[in-house]
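Usage

Read records sequentially. Each one opens with the input sequence:
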Amino acid sequence: MIPIDAEKLRAREEGALGDLYKELAPAIARFAGRFHPSIDPDDLVSEVFLQLVRDPDRLADLAASGNLRAFCLRLARNVALHHIRRIRRATALETVYESSLSMPQHRIDEDFTEERELIIAALAGLKESERALIKMRFIEELSDGEIAQTLGLSQGGVRVKFHRALRHLRDILQNQRRGQASEG
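and closes with the structure output:
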């Protein structure tokens, strides 16, 4: 193990950073190879070192305490998990996009026109406060905290009222569909 001088790291001296790289890069690269096949070891090493050199004081403190290696491996794990989540999200979005392309366009428009009319009628059947809550969430895209602040409620109260409003909307839509089925 190469001795790493904490004060030279704090000063970002090239020799100290080079020693740190020689010491930790192989362990991080091995970790990447075992963690997930989609993770490029060189990219993971680069990302970990980029994050390390952004905060030279913390880097020096970790080196002085002897916890630098463990910290770097935890950091590598977190960076790798973030990479995997990003890949999964992108794959899920591609799947949704591809499945929407496989549907005939005229069918999508017809479905949305019918559903849109049903939803507008169902929204008209809600209380004004329920409509406002649904508008804030879906149209204005406000968070629970923002809605709570606007309405003077707790976040938990907003969630309860929102779920009740959605349940009421769902009930109205189900009644509309039953009515259409009995007419048809």
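Summary fields computed downstream for this record:
- The mean pLDDT is 81.
- DSSP finds nine helices and no strands in the chain.
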